[in-house]
Amino acid sequence: MMKLAFRSLLSLLLVAAAMAKGRYPDMPTNTTAPVCGDDEELFQLQMTIVEDAKSSDRATYRVVTESTNVIHDECIRCEYDLKSPTDVKLCLPRDGCHTALLGRWNRHNSCENRRGGIDLLVTWGDNILRRSNAWLFDRIDFGDGCPTEPVCDKDNETFFEFFTERDNFNMDEDDPPDAFSWALMETKAGENGTQNEVALVGGQAKDQESYPFIYETACVPRNSCLEFHMWNPNPPEDYYDDDSPISVRLDRVIYSERDLGFDDFRNVYNRTIKLSKNCPFEIACDARSEDLFAVEYEITRVPEDHCADNDSYESSPVVESWDAPDFFLIDNKTRLYDDFIFTPTQKYGFELNKTYAFLKCIPNDICAQFQIDANYTGDFWYKLFQNGAELTNREVKGKPYYYIETMAGACAGAETVSSGTGTLFSVPGGVALSSTLAVFALLV
Questions:
Q1: What digits encode the pLDDT tens for the residues 284-310?
Q2: Quick one: CA dihedral 415, 296, 269, 323, positive or negative?
Q3: Is 408 within 8 Å of 369 (Cβ atoms)?
Q4: Where does residue 251 rank: exposed (0-12), middle (13-18), buried (19+ CB within 10 A)?
Q5: I need a labelling partner for 69 at 20 to 30 A (CA). Which of 29, 83, 344, 383 fits?
Q6: How far apart are the first and last CA of the chain?
């Protein structure tokens, strides 16, 4: 059995079991609001299909008080439809700290429909905790008893989260998928240049029916080099395709939110994600031959016509991957770093005002170019780092299809600086005049 060494206070594994017979239980509909006591507040969670966006949807919710490990209500991989929306009402202690966990088998962005969409509304008394027409995974803490300071030691620890809804594959109930395993590993420097790995978090889902929704958290060392591994320990001999959505986060920064992408055609049965707040590059990579390249990326404004074709909505909090600024890392004009082509693999899009990050070891003896699309008509910012130092040079190329290029790898050279604040871009094609000036200022 794997030995796990991690702080137990917040290392809470929430694995949900199907609550009703059949593949997709029905979501609850509660039309009568309960009468709450003087020391209670009304919590309400609604999922509603608006007009004819689609006939039905599947999602997961769980309402829990982690301090007592009490599950107040849950419905795992449940189905609701146009005529039967989800409506959950709970009276919960006002002075407690409660958590609502949300999962979904796929993100449905309502702006991609001509009519209608799907709404999520979560309230606590008169306060709106969350409203979205394009959600995927979420954790919402609420109540007067929630700490104002992070639960993890902010000086020495960071908060790790892993979500998955294992639902988007193998639809035959008599043929459940094989086991799914995961582990968060810390790499430490050993003697004589060796490296040692320590398991911080780990688990195994034996089958889909007992583990359709997984949420795991832990407080882990802040300045550590981390890798999150996911794999199928028993690759099947027959057809196998696992496109379950995953989300891996560190202090709310999203390091991966994509399909798992396991399949027998490409012989892909494992994924590894690097993540760290401040990892020494000589531990994360082979310092003799590699550099550690990192990106931080955030979209802060959608284009004004983002939801123009939808009759029911004016906007969405998510930019689809095909609408967001593409970026990738290339070597000798070929996209050899295929797993670094972030936007296409980010199938579920990018939420506004949430930071995304990516780390990769690249050869240190050849040049590489980081390129990002400069034709996006909203606002976004990004930072680039190599071995912990920021790369600040930006060169606009590709008229009339602009992209911004930064040299990396062996050609990073004098562009490398020790600190910086990143750059906020409003790029050509926007309505405001300042959008054009921001990028063309780089040309002079």
A1: 888 889 999 999 999 999 888 777 777
A2: negative
A3: yes
A4: middle
A5: 29
A6: 61
